[in-house]
Amino acid sequence: MDSALATTDHADVHAEHDHVALPQHRHHFETEEQQREAGSFGMWLFLLTEIMFFGGLFFAYLLYRNWYYPAFAVASNQLSVPLGAFNTAVLITSGFCMAVGVWAAELRRKGLLVLMLVLTTFFGLIFLGVKYDEYHEKYELHHIPGDSFNISMFTNPAGYGIKEEPLAPDMAQKTQIFFFLYFAMTGMHALHMIIGICLLFWLTWRAHRGDFSSGYVAPIENFGLYWHFVDIVWLFLFPLLYLINRHPLH
Amino acid sequence: MAHEGIHTDANDPSNVTNPEHAQHHIVTPLQYTYVFATLLLFTGITVGAAYVDLGWANPVIALGIACFKAVIVILFFMHAAYQSRLIKMTIGAGFFLFIVLITMTLTDYISRAWGMW
User: Fold this and answer.
1) Residue B44's closest chain A neighbor by CA?
2) Cβ contacts of residue A105 below 8 Å, gap of 6+?
3) CB–CB contact A51 B95 (8 Å)
4) Of A86, A141, A162, B90, which has the highest C-beta tally within 10 A?
5) Residue A84 pLDDT exceeds 70
């Protein structure tokens, strides 16, 4: 971080660019604001690649949902809306804590920043715990695509006490496509959250050390962008996967 | 951090930290609370709307609410509303490209069996 001293030495040469150098200010950026914007710009470019990545999955969902709508509707109804809605609220709360954390870093309040990062992590872990429970239920029902997948709940719903129209065996097989996309999309989302939680541990440790309470906010701010992006993915996953057709046979 | 003495004021009203630019905008927790409450409210609405049979409008409403929620997260939680034009354009360009890719791929799938039904 020696760049802090660079500008003051050349103040006479670059009088028009004279400014108070900060320890986090790299010498190849004219001003701290320029550095900050370059950082945000880079982070947004990364998030655009993430939009394309999840976009492919969303497109596959769009296509197969239109092709095999009856299978998608029945399979979707086997997911738990209370758990999904609860997780949505948990994730929104986590995002709110992250946003307040960015504010705390801007105001150089170390204690509040650490608290908010811990809360963000806490709610993130609750989300993953609920997700684990949902995955485990699908495992027990043999609703994970593959050799052990069992279509009997969809060909004979009355036998399981489910008020759904039975599907023909070929259409019932297509519920595997729904569950494949369910696990691929929520699984990739959960992987992003696991990576995010690992980063949160590291950032909390650095925040506790005081790295982000003297005007250097960029890592917290850019991580916040990542965390909110992951939230947004879930805001789309929840209605698309859980709420396809919740008013059957009326 | 050797320069702690310089910036005692986080909001930097005299632009000591950064004399060449306008003050960096800081979104307040009150604004975040409004956004938080709106997001929770619309989560409730989207669940409620799913249980009402509205035919083709069901997925449209679900996606509309999800888009609305995403927009307010991007604008306020992600500070896009207060960023430079470069960053706003970047965000817009990303979503535009996404729409283009979806449209062109769908065009292929829709037209492949053209005239064969």
Assistant:
1) A85
2) A113, A207, A212, A213, A217, A220, A221
3) yes
4) B90
5) yes
